[in-house]
Amino acid sequence: MLTKSWIRPALRTAAFLLALLVAVQGVGHLMMPTSNRHLSGYTAGGVLGEKNNTVDVLVMGDSNTAQGISPMEWYHARGVTGYAYGEGWLSIYNIYYRLLQIFKEQSPKVVVVSADTVYSRRGGDTYTAAAVREISGEVFPLVRFHDEWKNMHLTEYFKENDYTWRDVNKGFAPITDVSANMYNAQVWNYMNAEGAKAEYVPAQMKWYLRRIRDLCRKHGAEMMMIAVPACTSWNYSRSLGAAELAVELGVPYVDYNLREENPIGIDWRVDTPDGGNHLNVLGAQKLTDALGEYLTAHYALEDHRGQPGYEEWDEDSARYQEAKQEIWGCARQEADHQLQVLAENG
Amino acid sequence: MAYHSSVYLLLFLPLMWALWALVPQKYRAGVLLGGSLWFYWCGANYGIVWLLGIAAVVWLLGLAMGRTEALCAAVRPALDPPGRKALKKQAAALKRCLLVSGAAGLVLVLVRIKYLPFLLRVPLQWLAENRPWWPQLSLSSITQPLGISFFLLMGISYLVDVSRGAAQPAQKYWQVLSFLCFWPHVVEGPFDRWDKTAPALLDPPAPSYRALCFGVQRMVWGLFKKIVIADRANAFVKLVFDDWTQYSGAAIVVGTLCYTLQLYAEFSGCMDLALGTAEAFGVPLSENFRQPFFARSVSEFWRRWHITLGAWLREYVFQPVIVSKPMMRFGKFCRGRFGAAAGRSLPVWTGLLITWVLIGLWHGAGLIYLVYGLYYFLLQLLGEIAEPHLPAALTAKRETRWYKALQMLRTFVLVNFGMMLFRANGVMALLQMLRRLFTPWRQSLLIGIDAKDAAVLAAGAALMLAVDVLHERGHHLRSELAARPLPLRWAVMIAGVVAVMLFGAYGDHYDPAGFIYAQF
């Protein structure tokens, strides 16, 4: 009798939850943008528009990645194809699910994970709350794209998705502003090792990092971690924490905030658009060159320039180089002006 | 862990319910207590020490009062009538002493944490500026523990009820702790009574499919009000009230209306979430709202809005104050000086004044909250003074439909002005906002929201109004839905959940907004 009394409600509840799941997922798919241009922040969604299996290096991270790494520089200098998948506040949980999608179309040889995503947490969130929120956003497209109805025309709901849009900059978001944090120049000495202890990384985050590593291995990609220079959001404790994680995962880790790893030298007076939170194109050039050098030295990455099947990359590279002169010129002008102001103010 | 957060809805609540339903009956109360402590720890961390300490004090005082009563009952048969009388008097004095010391201690804790920095700020500043010889003093601020106003006042009500003999004291510490920290009412209330809530908390009923369905339905409706309406209105309200100098009189009027809508949707939505949660666990909590905008006077409004706060103050402040000895003496004095009518009214008005000042200050330490309380006191006072002088022709029409509508409209306007007062960033800001009402009204009202957001806001408000109309007419919508065929019930529920997820103002494009009343 007891069994009978709970089986019926349990079955009914399960059936209801199933119906709810179908409805939520169905509406969620209707809400998904019909173009990959609007699939993610910045131009990260453009990776799905690349010809299948052409991206050799995939960098996954938040806004620091999008503004700090320009893969087209690698193609121009070394013929290495790469994509910077950067989105504001992207977390490790997001990266895992996005990789699942990307691996369906691309087979990168190296997946570079930006270590600041480990510590990326919106204000007020606990670790568990952040995990549940981010994972639910990935599992239920309706949560992630719920606001899309405001941008969609009625006819778009029934249009087939067109995920062929390509980004010439390969995910890079060039910023030409120059703005140092002159009021608090102390932040430039942010990698102070004195008394620093490895910052805590919650177990659920570690678990997802292991899942990312295993996913990469399953698809024949090697995973590595980097820390993008950021003097207001990075510190030595985080660097130690990320280094410990990398050892646990058995993957290489390079922190471009550390002096010995940063031979080019980020100049916080001119290489940042916002007082040290992100890099502008001048800083991005330095980081991209250094990372490109590391990648070609440590991984067998082919030079695809002029190869059949990479015509689009050659075209995009030419267009990128054409636009680059103007963009970089603009940033250099701003940097010169900033240095002049600094010199005048002593 | 807010009631509308994904971690609460997708992790905490399902886990707690499953655990609660699966464990044997004798452990269910323990599961509820464990869940409450976990919930409180997530929101307050070490603030939990306050909760544990206050629960211990309340429990010990209640126990002492109970033991006094039991001792009296045991000794009484052996005494002669004068001895019995003396014993009763002594016991009453001891219980009163325990109650007064306990309640005063709890109030002092609240005053120290919440009000003392505000009360001492001006005198300390004055002394520092005008009396250089005065030593520099600074009051260390204590982080306000989550929900302290709620569990302290519930603790006081427990003590008063035990001292009056209206409730049996808890024998075990965990029982009082379980009552005070029950997670659905610890953040924003309602103020529950021990005799109503404790039985189901301490001896929970068996899990029920119907209770679960009803609870979840109420929670979905609460989520709709909070996420779709209140959080969407927040974008508009925040801009208008924080930067009023930029906006016209029209924006200030609409901003005030939107704030009223936001506060109502949010607070009543939070109550729906809290009561829905408790219902799913078989625990009845007190209703805190009853269609407040159908009130015909401000006093009726406060009997429909935050009902349990009003009831608490009425029972534990207003009534004891007006029957207290000093107030009786005051009444006698007034009767002698100003006549019988004043002798009756003035003590009541004094009680009302104290109650309204407390209502104002309960919302926060600040001059604006004091003014807020006084505003409602004045309205009620004027209403009572004017009532006997209304022309007979008008009072005769009191029950006609148009007169009722007029009264509702008047109350609505007065309440909205009160809301403006409540939300304004200080008294000066309020005065300047009022002055801006007379500036040209030509300005777009799409401030912080776009046309589609505004449409959703209007549709959501219309739906809320429709539901309130049905409730006011005596419909019990969930029971009526339960009588419908299963496909219709499921369709309504699924539509509700999808609507919340689809039209909710959450994610990257919206500022996350916490529950306003959680800060009180």
Explain how this protein is built.
- The complex is a heterodimer of chains A (346) and B (520).
- In chain A, helix 9 links the parallel strand 4 and strand 5.
- Chain A is 46% helix and 7% strand.
- The mean pLDDT of chain A is 91.
- With 346 residues, chain A is of the alpha/beta class.
- Chain A has a 5-stranded parallel sheet.
- With 520 residues, chain B is an all-alpha fold.
- Helices cover 74% and strands 0% of the residues of chain B.
- In chain B, helix 10 crosses helix 17.
- At the A-B interface, helix 1, helix 6 and helix 7 of A face helix 1 and helix 21 of B.
| Percentage beta strand of chain B | under 5%
Looking at the structure, what is the overall shape of chain A?
globular
Secondary structural class of chain A:
alpha/beta
Name the helicity range of chain A.
40-55%
Kindly report the spatial arrangement of strands forming the biggest sheet of chain A.
Answer: 2-1-3-4-5
Mean pLDDT reading of chain A:
91
In CATH terms, what is the fold-level topology of chain A? Answer: Rossmann fold
Count of the separate structural domains of chain A:
1
Question: What is the rounded Rg of chain A?
Answer: 22 Å
Under the CATH scheme, the architecture of chain A is: 3-Layer(aba) Sandwich
Low-confidence stretches of chain B: none
Could you state the order of secondary-structure elements of chain A as H and E?
HEHHEHEHHHHEHEHH
Task: Output the keywords.
heterodimer; A: alpha/beta; Rossmann fold; 11 helices; 5 strands; B: 520 residues; mainly alpha; 21 helices
Topology:
The complex is a heterodimer of chains A (346) and B (520).
Chain A: H1 2-31, E1 57-61, H2 63-68, H3 71-78, E2 82-86, H4 92-102, E3 110-114, H5 116-119, H6 127-139, H7 141-145, H8 203-218, E4 222-227, H9 236-249, E5 253-255, H10 281-298, H11 311-344
Parallel strand pairs in A: 1-2, 1-3, 3-4, 4-5
Helix pairs in contact in A: 3-10, 3-11, 4-6, 4-8
Chain B: H1 6-22, H2 25-44, H3 48-75, H4 81-130, H5 148-164, H6 173-181, H7 183-186, H8 194-202, H9 209-242, H10 249-280, H11 298-304, H12 307-322, H13 325-338, H14 340-362, H15 367-386, H16 392-395, H17 401-423, H18 427-436, H19 451-472, H20 477-482, H21 486-503
